[in-house]
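Quick one:
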Amino acid sequence: MNLKTVISTDTIDLHLKGSTKKEIINELLDILHKTGKIQDREAALTAVMDREEKMSTGMKHGIAIPHGKTATTQDLVACIGISENPVDFDSLDKQPCRIFIMTLSPVEKTGPHLQFLAEVSLLFKSSEKRDEILKAKTPEDVLEILTE
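Output:
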């Protein structure tokens, strides 16, 4: 999967303001809604929060990948947000997160969703990539880092 087909500069926010998991999730949903990637914001919120209740999507190394399956989108959609302040996301390593990648996909399509999650997980195993993302000045910088 080519991340450029799913993420664009208008779905990247380098200045998330939220200080809680729910606030961050809402900001990420705002990005997807504002850019027309999702139609029903409330349905998307329900899908993501239901997933969070099953198990936190806070990974390791300051990254969280909130995601869900919903009828509010016909194809896999994604966005990225960076927070200047670390946010507790109930992560596997108990560390707060600053990099957030949200993805939503249709209920009936499993393949692209799993492929996206696997690709993003591999990408962010590199501490250099994580540091570059956190230092990025523009959405264009983030997109270039993700796709190099």
